[in-house]
Amino acid sequence: MKKIVAIMLALTFVLAFAACNKNEADKPDVKGEGVMTHAEYIAAPLDSQVTVETYVQAKQSWWEDKATVYSQDKDGAYFLYNMACSEADYAKLTPGTKIKVTGYKSEWSGEVEIIDATFEIEEGNYVAPATDVTALLGSETLIDHQNEFVTFKGMTVEASTAPDGSEVAFLYNWDGSGEDGSDLYFNVSKDGKTYNFTVESYLCDSSTAVYAAVKNLKVGDVIDMEGFLYWYEGVNPHITSVAAAK
Amino acid sequence: MKRVRALLLLALLVCPLLLASCHGSRGLPEFALPAELDASKTCEITFWAKNDTNKTQTAIYSKAVEDFEALYPNIRVNIRFYTDYGRIYNDVITNISTGTTPNVCVTYPDHIATYLTGQNIVVPLDGLMADPRYGFGGSELKFDGPEAEEMIPQFLGECAIGGIHYALPFMRSTEACYVNKTMLESLGYELPEVLTWDFVWEVSDKAAEKDENGVYAANGQKTMIPFIYKSTDNMMIQMLKQKGAGYSTPEGEILLFSDTTKDILRDVAEHTGTGAFSTFKISSYPGNFLNAGQCLFAVDSTAGATWMGSHAPHSDISPDKFVEFECAVLPIPQFDPSDPKMISQGPSVCVFNKRDPGEVLASWLFAQYLLTNEVQIAYAGTEGYVPVTEKAQKSDEYRRYLASAGGEDEESYEVKIRATELLLDNVGNTFVTPVFNGSASLRDAAGQLIENTAKSVRRKETVDDAYFEALFDDVNSLYRLDQHTGASAAGREDLGPLPAASAALLGTIAAVWIGMGAYLLAGRIRKKKEGKS
Asked: Which positions in chain A touch B318 (Cβ < 8 Å)?
């Protein structure tokens, strides 16, 4: 009897804890004084000063006290380009870390981002779940998810043409001019349309699982992918994981 | 007394170490050319190559290595590809401290000036170039390289720092203004032979006019940036040169922060305000906008010519965004069309020093092999590059290449060959900026002035004289220009007065030595006295 009671109590705690967490994730973000909502950020004109509270999702690079970070709150994403950041602070920016960012809204080749920014770390943590945008590929509403952590399911690897004219599953650099360690470019299709995806080597270098996974792809493989919905002259997802389609 | 003896003994042991550490870390010995290349010894060298993210260029580098190794079977060349000069520079700096520099490296003279602050890091090439066996046209060369007099003197001269050659030119380019001539004429203008700044600003302002719905009359689209400059450091440097204003002296004195610079920035501010002007850093690649009919004047390197035009072989925009237009290739805008001035740029190669002189000689041979017609003509054809030797420029093969402009294939892409001809026709109008330790930072600062001004206007900040004064201070501080002594890289810097701590240390050492001397002297005197007594 005691055992049953103990198990029931433990289960109750686990379920309650899970429910609390779920509630935490479901709770809308309450923004601080002078902080924009994501909708206000989207509505803000280019080159205007913006202040947002957001959560680090992934770090792309740090160089000479500047960090480039993918971030997201519960309503949308913010790409933080070359944000002022010491090396010590960069180490503190782990996935989920809440930061308050002040900078300027800008657009570079279609990528809307915050530049010339500064930030401070705040209390709070949130890791965004991946949103499935497979059905939105090729549609005008895909851009509404720009920079978000997303997933693509059941896509087929299509051939790319290597410098020697052969058909391959991926290229080092966009035209095959790179080598191991360069960005990886590969084609995937869905419903008869082909898209070019990237493993960005600053975000996921040659030591990462996704880099190895893409190098092992074969034309015709059907795969699921996760990554960030980056933009460069059109959608250019930066893929962070690849697995055989479930 | 034992204690005093122990201290003196310690001082005797420590002094040489202290003196050694005061001398600083030991560099490599000066390179001395060996009697001959030891063909019985296998030698492995590393070549860091820069390409423009261009598979043809990487293939040419790889073939050059393969052909060189066939000629010199005992030399193995490991190649590492870069697509960014900045990354090469950073990696070289890192590897200097660990003694793991490459053997041969594509670089810019500004960067070499920094490498030269180390002792014997970069090999001076004058002795090698003149060597009758392994120099230009040398008797022991296994390839048909250029004779000394076949090097374009101006390009070779650009690789000299303080009168000593520390690099070989590899390719040369300049900047071109790629013009959508079709759009320009639709606005009621005629394209002049030489663009002036006044003309470009005027037409750009006109092209920036849009209706109440945000549609530009020039292209019927909602996106239009009439004038985009890729490299704003080049923009500032060339405008100052054209105006006869100072930038820096050969000794490294900085003249950038002047009234002329403010005048240039006022123009930048005015035409950013009208929506006529933007930069690569702010908006994106000029070619992307030009090819989509969203830009009228796109200034970029002649080495970026394959990305320009309605039928550009290379592009980042989707085919459906291209518009049809006639693409004219002109020199950059000028203040005085009768006296045009444009920058000379492009990759050079330097050779790094190693403990084994045989390894350095092998590196030199490979660097020189890059000047053969096989490499020069092939690589120059990948972009709007110009070969750096007369041997290549005057060859039938190269003449045939230039004459092929307008053909169907990528190699004869007209915009690219017109860009090449632009430089060939204007070699005498090109210039380079003085090279010294800190000149790379000064170049960055020159561009930053334009970037910041343009950004501030877009952000509706007040841009006036007070703004420029503050901007000068900020940029001066950001790039630590006030901390450079201005010494030539090849010379020795004046390190200023000795720091107090160092002076105290040297004083202590001197006192210890005096104490030791006094102690020994006292001992001898005592012994003498004891002997006498």
From this structure: 233-234
